[in-house]
Amino acid sequence: MKKNNKHIPIRTCVICRQKYPKQELVRFTCPETGHELQIDPEGKRPGRGFYVCFNERCQKNISRFRGWRNKCKGVRHV
User: Fold this and answer.
1) Are 66 and 14 in contact (CB under 8 A)?
2) Is-contact 45 30, C-beta < 8 A?
3) CA distance 39 to 62
4) SS3 (DSSP) at 71
5) Is the pTM of this model over 0.90?
6) Which helix (H) or strand (E) holds 27?
7) How far apart, in whole angstroms, are the C-alpha atoms of residue 62 and residue 37?
8) Which of 22, 37, 48, 72 would bridge 9 by S-S if both were Cys, CB 3.0 to 4.6 A apart?
9) Half-sphere exposure of 43 toward its Cβ, with a 13 Å CA cutoff?
10) pLDDT tens for residues 34-55?
């Protein structure tokens, strides 16, 4: 008997710290060059990334989120 229980990855929003299924979040990746975050709409870009939910408050606060500098520290893109 096959079970139809497919694994759903869970990720945490870095702003509100709530857990959501991965497809309900926006993924940002560390910048390859420069100092601006890059949105990863497909969730397939290489490198370190973090997630933000679609909550209006979280979307407004992502521009003030400075924790990405620590999350991207030491990350080198190939």
Assistant:
1) no
2) no
3) 11
4) helix
5) no
6) strand 25-29
7) 10
8) 22
9) 12
10) 677 788 888 888 878 889 999 9
